[in-house]
Design goal:
about 325 residues; alpha+beta; Immunoglobulin-like; four-stranded antiparallel sheet; 4 helices; about 20% strand
Length: about 325
């Protein structure tokens, strides 16, 4: 921010341009006080720098104090708009699990400029001493358009210093389709940087795995298969043996009887029941086959006390 062209309103200072009080061309101003409208502390000086932390619209006020007695003041203000940073939406610039050395890869990037979506347009007057549009106002010329689409740039490998050899490995930006050589370190890290028309930039890093042709373990197409691909090798035999072992263990586990099956087996042995007919609800005792009829005892067996025979009571009818 520059306030050096301010001068005291007293006629003797009109046209004076120096900010040095010892200079005969002194403009009569002793203090320049800047309020940037973002709750930051005020600054003093005819030329100051300020960095805004949050995008938006701000009112900047400049108060100048002259050298008359205690100092008379005058204040002017200007509205400024702080541009928003372009947003990088892309999460996978290649759309591939890995890339192959020497293959052309089209890098995809999606960025959003919220200022353009809100319809904000801006121009830059590159020379205030020239009236380029001829309207008599030297400070409203639209020499450079500042609301163009965001620029997209790529650094293909942050581990090495690329095209400019300036010692910074993270600013070697290129454009368009890319081809990689086998990197020294995996995964390869690339940077996407996007900048708007006023050079407000944002960046994002991505990891890419680059494989040589021999390392390509992707799925083969039918045309790539040969009869050797169907012959099991040592690794395949081990895998088949493992699958067979798992299936056998599963079969053995399924064949083990649980508590209900064991109880049913014991009940079958106790009641000699081979078949149970269900007629709604749970089966009852009346639905089992009757037990076998007891055999007839001989005279000796009936007289034997150990047989448990009980002689029936007989009565005579009169």
């Amino acid at each position: 921010f520059d306030g050096s062209e301010s001068y005291d309103s007293d006629p003797i200072f009109e046209g004076m341009i120096s900010t040095n009080q010892e200079d005969p061309e002194w403009n009569g101003i002793t203090r320049w006080i800047w309020d940037f409208g973002d709750s930051s502390p005020v600054k003093e000086g005819f030329e100051v720098w300020h960095q805004y932390q949050i995008p938006g619209t701000y009112i900047v006020k400049l108060t100048v104090v002259d050298g008359f007695e205690a100092g008379e003041t005058n204040t002017t203000s200007i509205m400024i708009y702080v541009s928003r940073t372009p947003e990088i939406v892309t999460n996978d610039p290649t759309g591939l699990e890995y890339v192959i050395v020497g293959e052309i890869v089209d890098l995809y990037a999606e960025v959003i400029d919220r200022d353009l979506e809100d319809g904000i347009e801006a121009w830059l007057d590159t020379d205030i001493n020239e009236d380029s549009n001829g309207d008599g106002d030297f400070e409203n010329d639209k020499d450079r358009y500042l609301s163009s689409e965001p620029e997209i740039k790529w650094d293909l490998n942050i581990a090495i210093d690329g095209i400019d050899n300036d010692g910074n490995t993270m600013n070697d930006f290129v454009w368009g389709e890319q081809v990689w050589m086998l990197p020294e370190y995996q995964p390869l890290v690339i940077i996407l940087e996007t900048c708007d028309g006023v050079n407000v930039c944002s960046s994002k890093q991505f990891e890419i795995t680059v494989l040589s042709i021999e390392e390509d373990d992707g799925p083969l197409s039918i045309s790539d298969l040969t009869w050797k691909d169907f012959v099991p090798d040592a690794g395949s035999a081990g895998l088949l043996a493992l699958v067979a072992t798992v299936l056998l263990l599963g079969w053995l586990i399924m064949r083990q009887k649980d508590e209900e099956e064991m109880d049913a087996k014991k009940s079958t042995e106790t009641y000699d029941v081979q078949e149970v007919k269900a007629e709604g609800g749970l089966p009852g005792m009346d639905q089992h086959n009757p037990p076998p009829q007891p055999k007839y005892l001989t005279v000796e067996e009936r007289r034997n006390k150990e047989s448990g025979y009980i002689r029936p009571i007989r009565t005579r009818r009169k």
